[in-house]
Predict the structure.
Amino acid sequence: MSRPTIATTASAAGHGERDERWLRRIERLIPGRRGAVAGDFRLAQRNIYILPSRAGTIFIAVVLLMLLVSVNFGLSLGYALTFLLGSLGLVGMMHTFRNLSALVLRPDRVDPVFAGEFAEFGVSVRNPGRLERRAVALIAPGSVHAQFVDLPGGSQSHVAVPVRAPCRGWLEAPRLLVQTRFPLGVFRAWAWWQPAMRVLVYPHPEEAGIPLPASNGGGGGSDGGAGREDDLSNLRPWSPGDSPRRIAWKAIARSDSAELLVKQFEGGEAGELVLDFDTLPERLEVEARLSRMTRWVLDAEHAGRRYSLRLAGRTIGPDSGPAHRADCLAALALHGLEGR
């Protein structure tokens, strides 16, 4: 089975954007299924609509004009050419509709992003039939890009539809437009699909430059980057969340045990970072504080530090690693939004 191909064409998206305005007016007059769909969404006769495109409108006008001229002047060749072109148009209309019919759409995965970035909503498009489907486009409202996919018979493709994430919190997937103009471009078939999926948008991180806060005790005058790691206390077994930088590789090589050993520095856990939302200057707005806390979480994780987050009376950690980072960023993203 050949591999499906995916391409992005900005110019075609521009046509889709212009057509979308008047199609929305027509959509209000056409009954159809609305609301989010959690599972498979099959395109069929009840949810696919088709109308002539701009080129198709001109084509129909020309064919009607040719028919009128042939009737007035009794042109036999004019009749033949008129009916030939009309038949090609009707066949093209059937192929355009068939290019979408029976396709199965399903929500896929989507990864969290930071505010101001593009969230890529994953969509799975499956072609259960034997006929090849070409130039099937998926467009998000307001997007300047259309995602085009070609599907050989019996194949499946995964498409990422970009949607801008303007602010933190949960971002619901928009109502996607699925359309095609294949093969002649004189007709345009489309369907609307609202996938039941959402993505968590983290606060936009502050620009780098503000250092991490000082470690919580144990280090005297040590700053957040030092942590008194010069005073080695002992070695202890590795536990989940320990930084790879603290693994004692030389001690492991000298020992006969296969167990990982981690360096324990003087002061123990007292030198861990505490990122406290309430200690930030009150002159900063809430969103600015969240941006700074987001920057500190990223910097602490990049430095391999163990840290805890204090926010709205809740403490997360101390810990480190991707799971702890995701928990902290999720708490910052949903701060003050839980009841909305």
